[in-house]
Amino acid sequence: MLVSVVVACEVGFWVLLALGLVVRYVLRLRKVSNVVLASVPVVDVVLLAATVADLRRGATADWTHGLAAAYIGFSVAYGHYLVQWADRHFAYRFAGGPKPAKPPRYGSARAKHEWKLAGMTALAAAIALTLLQGAIWMVGDASRTEALSETQVRTLYIAGINGLIALTYTLWPKEDPAPPQNPDLDVYLGPDREQEQGQGQGQGQGQGHEKELEQGQGQEQERRKADRFLR
Q1: Would the pLDDT of 196 be above 70?
Q2: Domain map of the chain by residue range?
Q3: What is the pLDDT of residue 209?
Q4: With 70 as the cut, is the pLDDT of residue 84 above it?
Q5: What is the mean pLDDT of residues 155-177?
Q6: Is residue 36 predicted with pLDDT exceeding 90?
Q7: What angle do CA 197, 198, 200 make, to 5 degrees?
């Protein structure tokens, strides 16, 4: 029974959110859209009332009651963030708004983003833990609220893991890949170097030819001297 209420409230959250955005950007009724979006938290009130009523009727708490508390905590902590995210994307798709920026992926900006998410998760966990503890006190029977205590432990685990993830991005920040490097200088200057090498080879050949001429001239002078001596 209660799980059906949780599912209905989740569907109701997104229906009210979509309706509010349609009224704002398609029908251009901003004031009306503000009223619709402001009614989104009513879903949490309905779920909370249904959970309390079920426990007051003498029901033994199970995982569905824990799920209801976790959902309310998530909705309260992440609700504004989700509404802003949906608003930006809806405006971009249907109202010519600017393209939403993607979350940062590298460096301190990524660590800051992860700590923001960890903070919202911690808030959601705190709200869920408070609701669960309130239900335990309201029932006043440990045999009927064992599932709620187990949900409290799992909630702490989730918040702790999210905090550790944020800590890893702080201690070991993900570095931005190096920008594309310029073409290899050797390849780029290849033709010039080949031309220089060709010029060097040409100069070397020219110098060698001059030496051969000098040697030939010297040999010719020696032969002339020998002829004069023999005469």
Answers
A1: no
A2: 2-171, 185-230
A3: 52
A4: yes
A5: 94
A6: yes
A7: 65
> What one-character DSSP code corresponds to residue 58?
T
Q: Taking the model in full, what pTM does it have? A: 0.73
Residue 113 CB contacts under 8 Å (≥ 6 apart), including other chains: 103, 104
| Spatial separation of the C-alpha atoms in residues 86 and 126, rounded to whole Å | 25
Q: If you count DSSP H runs as helices and E runs as strands, how many of each does the chain have, helices first?
A: 8, 0
Query: Do the beta carbons of residue 54 and residue 65 sit within 8 Å?
Result: yes
Please enumerate in sequence order all residues whose Cβ is within 8 A of that of 72, keeping only pairs 6 or more positions apart, or say none. Answer: 44, 47, 48, 127, 128, 131
| Predicted pLDDT at 96 | 87
Residues 6+ apart with CB under 8 A from 214: none
Kindly provide the b/e burial profile for residues 177-213, where b requires at least 16 CB atoms within 10 angstroms of the residue's own CB: eeeeeeeeeeeeeeeeeeeeeeeeeeeeeeeeeeeee
H or E, element range at 12? helix 2-25
Q: How many Cβ atoms sit within 10 Å of the Cβ of residue 176? A: 12
Comparing C-alpha atoms, which of 160, 83, 176 is closest to residue 121?
A: 160
